[in-house]
Amino acid sequence: MPADVRDRDALLAPYDVDGVVDEPELRSVAELARHVCDVPYAVVNLISEHFQHQVAAVGIAPAVCAREDSMCSVSITTSEPVVVPDAREDPRFADNPFVTGRLADVRFYAAGQLRTASGAVLGTLCVFDGVRRDLAPAQRRGLDLLAGQAVAALELRRAGRELATTVRELEEARAELARSNSDLAAFAGQVSHDLRNPLAGVTGFLELLADRPAVAADGTAHGHVERALAGAARMRDLVDDLLAYARVGGGLRPERVDLAVLLDDVLDDLAPTGALDGFDVRGDPLPVVRGDAVQLRAVLQNVVTNALRFARPDRRLLLRLRAQARDERWLIEIADNGRGIPTAQREEAFTLLRQVHDHGTVPGGSGIGLATCRRIVAAHGGTIGIGDGVDGGIAVWFTLPAA
């Protein structure tokens, strides 16, 4: 068997042909072929390993027959146009059951190959009659052109099925992601509940112990209690961060959000701690975007807090802001002149519970902040990354939809 007709079931699989298929678009092509060739019958056939599938027919009802009985199984193997005035006189078809009268009494038969762009022959567009006749050159040319239109209709059908499959898979993935996020939020909530109760007890007893005069008088004991209280506070913050991370994207409330106002709120919250002493902000005003104000505030707070935490003690901390409109999105960059992150470790910084270096001037940190930022930005349809900052620092950039 020629190479272009081997494993025909695999060749036709993308076109989903199984049994009788009557496609309206292909029936229109067959109707035109009947009209152009001035015959009573026209059929679009797809030839599989063992069967001929009439996927559209005019003048007869579409059916399926064995491949060995098919006249078109011969036509898909020849490189020459097939036009047979009287099939009884052609040795290729004289004994065919569609010619001998066992299945039909075909006399005139002509076929154009359904050849794809890759050169594979799917089947034929054939016309036939029960009387002897012939085709004019213009009719022969018209049959070939219509065979090309039949291939185009088949390819459109295949593409439509693939698109439907892709949409279904995306819907299933979205549903699974929603379920996973729901499970993650429930798990984090349970862990938070289970850890908060014993942690509250530990903190309460430590506070009682710290208030005892004997402990206060003993500097060593008092120091140990203070360290234990600080450790309990860090554990509480870690639990809160995990819970916040799990809830990201679960219920966005999109609105117009002025990032400049959010940044001012973040800086106002940090001011009483003294962390902003010697702090400088320069650059572009931040834009108005569309998103969830609460979650976007968390992005700005995490980025600014990281800049403070990893500021260099030998220089004044600088934040440089940049905002650039790109189509219907904003590219926002917040750069600092802090300790920086090696290029090879920048992607690692977004990994949950992963810290790429020790703490700087601000204590705390759980390795959750930038992971949370990535989840928030992704939930808004954007991307986030780390680039070069000012004088060895880093620049955190992210994209958000414009308002």
Automatic annotation (TrEMBL):
Annotated keywords: ATP-binding, Coiled coil, Kinase, Nucleotide-binding, Transferase
The protein's enzyme class: transferase
Coiled coil stretches, renumbered: 156-190
The UniProt record lists the keyword ATP-binding: yes
Enzyme Commission code(s) on record: 2.7.13.3
Subcellular location: Cell membrane
Alphabetical list of Gene3D superfamilies matching this protein: 1.10.287.130, 3.30.450.40, Histidine kinase-like ATPase, C-terminal domain
Claim: DNA repair is one of the keywords in the record: no
Entry-linked InterPro entries: BphY/WalK/GraS-like, GAF-like_dom_sf, HATPase_C_sf, HATPase_dom, His_kinase_dom, HisK_dim/P_dom, HisK_dim/P_sf
SMART domains, sorted: HATPase_c, HisKA
Major localization class: membrane
GO molecular function: ATP binding
Domain Histidine kinase as annotated: residue spans: 190-403
Pfam families the record matches: HATPase_c, HisKA
Signal peptide segment: none
Catalytic activity annotation: ATP + protein L-histidine = ADP + protein N-phospho-L-histidine
Protein name per UniProt: Sensor-like histidine kinase SenX3
UniProt organism field: Actinomycetospora rhizophila
Source species taxonomy: Bacteria, Bacillati, Actinomycetota, Actinomycetes, Pseudonocardiales
